[in-house]
Write a structure and sequence with these properties.
InterPro entries: Replication_initiator_prot_A. It is a single chain. The chain is of the alpha+beta class. The protein folds into 3 domains: about 270 residues, no CATH class; about 100 residues, no CATH class; about 80 residues, no CATH class. A 4-stranded antiparallel β-sheet has the order 2-3-5-6. A hairpin with a 2-residue loop joins strand 2 and strand 3. It is globular, with a radius of gyration of 25 Å. The protein starts with 5 loop residues before the first strand and ends with a helix.
Length: about 450
């Protein structure tokens, strides 16, 4: 099963906080550079037992960002997920080896501290700010033993850094083709792809992409957090990732010109490789349109027409002119493919007010020639019931963590997930009771009943 394209936070991808090396031994790095007349300094300090974030940590940070987005972007930055589900988001195998690797990555991201001076973008305000944070500010997990070993039952809860949360909620994100990224052979190549994919977006105009990128070899090594400043060593470290990214069709070409420390790398991007932009992707997903189908529609019709069609579809449904059979996705795609079979809001065939109306008189909507029987939109509980039990268990712990914030810890969520898997509880019923308790201000009673259920064998 292919993984959908997801998102990346642009500050993280531009500044690159994860070293693009498979193994790291250093406990800190400090990079200073100039960007658009500003001096930017980025520093990382890590515990000796973990070293600085590197390699596979890039997979984990991408997974956590998208987990946070999928869980509704809560204002407090909290997330909850089973180790099994997070491994899947990372594109890793569900084995004991990767359980151990996942724990080390999370610990490293929790204990390593970052400081960004003058280079963190506050996109809604159009300002450059300072930021100090741990990628994961708080971390809690259930374990198989006193040593903190992850296993099939482990549930992880935590909180992302406030700066990252504010940036995502402020819309400073870009598409990230995780299906492609996770198919790359080495952590180093995946990290370089993510750095390049962030660098090709204009920092203060994230809707604009570059067709090529010119970077100084030494400065690029610092951007990638490579340990060497020797030009020959840098070229050798990047050679294999360059070769794979060209072979896989992401880069058109890579060329290095100049001598010594004045060498410059030119990256030529394959323009057609650009994934969906976040606005279109989010809207299409709300309708249930698969990412692959959305990309095809974008190529065939263009962004402006698709936005217009989605707005038109929403207006027709809201006014009761268009009713939905089977799925909203199918109905929307039919409207996009057969626009003349549907009326325009305002009643004119062009979607514009008729002459003489002054643009103010709304005309009644005509009935479309192709109507579909109405189906009630499913509730969250209905959607849960349609999923396999394992997915129900993962969805319900994420939702309960969101609804009850700090009142349910990782051990509680571990018990809830296992109760659903064992058949002692059903996810839809648990969720309905949790929501009803909130509405009646009876959270304590619900939590008491829940913990009583978890104690049952």
């Amino acid at each position: 099963m292919s993984r959908p394209s997801r998102f990346d936070e642009l500050n993280l991808s531009r500044l690159n906080l994860i070293s693009a090396v498979d193994q790291a031994e250093v406990t800190e790095w400090d990079v200073t550079f100039e960007n658009q007349g500003r001096i930017v300094r980025v520093r990382c300090e890590a515990l000796p037992k973990y070293a600085v974030p590197h390699g596979l940590d890039s997979d984990v940070t991408a997974a956590l960002l998208n987990l946070y987005i999928e869980q509704g972007e809560p204002e407090d930055g909290r997330f909850a997920v089973s180790a099994t589900a997070l491994l899947k988001l990372c594109g890793w195998h569900n084995t004991g080896k990767y359980h151990a690797t996942l724990r080390h990555c999370l610990e490293r991201l929790h204990t390593s501290s970052y400081s960004v001076s003058g280079g963190w973008r506050d996109h809604p305000k159009g300002r450059w700010t300072h930021a100090k944070f741990h990628f994961i500010e708080s971390l809690d997990f259930s374990s198989a033993d006193q040593y903190g070993t992850f296993d099939e039952r482990t549930v992880i809860s935590g909180r992302l850094a406030d700066a990252i949360v504010a940036s995502i909620r402020g819309g400073y994100i870009k598409p990230l083709d995780t299906e492609f990224m996770l198919s790359l052979s080495r952590p180093r190549t995946r990290a370089l792809y993510r750095i390049l994919d962030g660098a090709r977006f204009e920092s203060d105009h994230p809707d604009q992409r570059l067709d090529h990128l010119d970077v100084n070899l030494i400065a690029w090594a610092e951007q990638c957090k490579l340990p060497s400043t020797v030009p020959g060593n840098i070229r050798r470290a990047l050679a294999s990732p360059h070769e794979e990214l060209v072979k896989r069709g992401y880069l058109r070409s890579v060329s290095i010109t100049g001598r010594g420390k004045a060498q410059v790398i030119r990256y030529e991007f394959v323009r057609e490789f650009m994934p969906m932009d976040p606005v279109l992707t989010r809207r299409f997903r709300n309708y249930g349109v698969a990412d692959g189908v959305a990309r095809k529609l974008l190529r065939e019709h263009g962004r402006a027409l698709l936005i217009e069609c989605m707005d038109r579809f929403d207006a027709l449904v809201q006014r009761g002119v268009l009713v939905v059979r089977k799925s909203r996705a199918a109905a929307l795609i039919h409207l996009i493919s057969h626009p003349d079979e549907y009326p325009y809001p305002g009643g004119s065939s062009s979607g514009r007010p008729s002459a003489g109306s002054g643009g103010n008189t709304a005309q009644p909507l005509a009935k479309a020639s192709r109507m579909e029987p109405l189906l009630d939109l499913p509730t969250v509980a209905d959607e849960l019931a349609a999923l396999p039990v394992a997915q129900q268990a993962d969805k319900v712990i994420a939702r309960l963590s969101f609804l009850y914030r700090k009142r349910l810890n990782a051990t509680d969520l571990d018990g809830v997930r296992q109760a659903v898997l064992d058949g002692r509880a059903t996810a839809p019923q648990l969720l309905e009771e949790a929501v009803a308790a909130l509405a009646r201000n009876e959270q304590d009673m619900f939590l008491q009943r829940l913990r009583t259920l978890l104690k049952q064998p």
